[in-house]
Amino acid sequence: MASLEFTRRYAMAHRLLTTKSPKCAIPHGHNEFVTVRLDPTEPFRFGGANSAAPFEHVKRRWHQWIDEHVDHALHLDENDPLIGYFRTREPERLSQIITFQGDPTTEALAACFWLKLTAFVAVEGLAFTVREVRIEETPTNTVVINRQNFDPSDCGLRAGVWPRRSDMSINDFRD
Predict the structure, then answer these.
(1) Residue 23 lies inside a defined structural domain of this protein
(2) Quick check: is 34 in a domain?
(3) Is the pLDDT higher at 145 or at 23?
(4) Contact yes or no for 98/70 (Cβ under 8 A)
(5) Which residues are CB-contacts of 131 (< 8 A; sequence separation ≥ 6)?
(6) 14 φ, ψ to 5°?
(7) Which ranges form a coiled coil (predicted)?
(8) Of 20, 52, 61, 95, which one is least surrounded by beta carbons within 10 A?
(9) In a domain, 172, yes or no
(10) The pTM of the whole model exceeds 0.85
């Protein structure tokens, strides 16, 4: 079976409050790479197009979301007091904040990416399933989630939140 794999680079900032790391409690940034691997739902067979779908069709929505919504976003716990600051002083920037249930770790981001990509694949009617999400946070730190270590149906994330939706959202703020 031939998998599709594609990578995107983006910049981000976050802070981790629950982790109790003094360095990570201060907002700081990373230039990260996300690599996703998709498996076709049908085995490869010669004849016709010889592919489940063109690369550009499969990755179009994903790359648009990364480039226009994830790149240069601030990642915060949905209960972080900084959100209150932005609500009162810079509400126009709320659309650039990605929120998480708990600390916005790279592990949490990988799980959210998995869920969002799954929603995109479903709404586009693509004949693929997500096999793996890999985020390189730094040249020496990478997080990988796959079917063996991540169960989207039992990950503790509330129903209907932004990662589970096929829209371009990165948070659940209401206007």
Answers:
(1) yes
(2) yes
(3) 145
(4) yes
(5) 3, 37, 38, 39, 146, 147
(6) -155, 170
(7) none
(8) 20
(9) no
(10) yes
Answer whether 145's CB lies under 8 Å from 132's CB.
yes
Predicted confidence at residue 50, as pLDDT, reads 65
Q: pLDDT band for 57, please (50, 70, 90 cuts).
A: confident
Q: What is the domain range of residue 135?
A: 4-164
When divided into structural domains, the chain yields a total of: 1
Residue type present at position 106? T
138, β-bridge pairs: 141
pLDDT tens digits along 116-133: 999 999 999 888 999 999
Q: Are 70 and 78 in contact (CB under 8 A)?
A: no
Residue with tokens 């399933």: 129
Distance of CA 162 to the CA centre of its chain: 10
Q: How far apart are CA 59 and CA 115, in angstroms?
A: 15
Note the pLDDT of residue 45: 72
Q: Can you list the positions of beta strands (E) in 51-171?
A: 73-77, 97-100, 128-138, 141-146
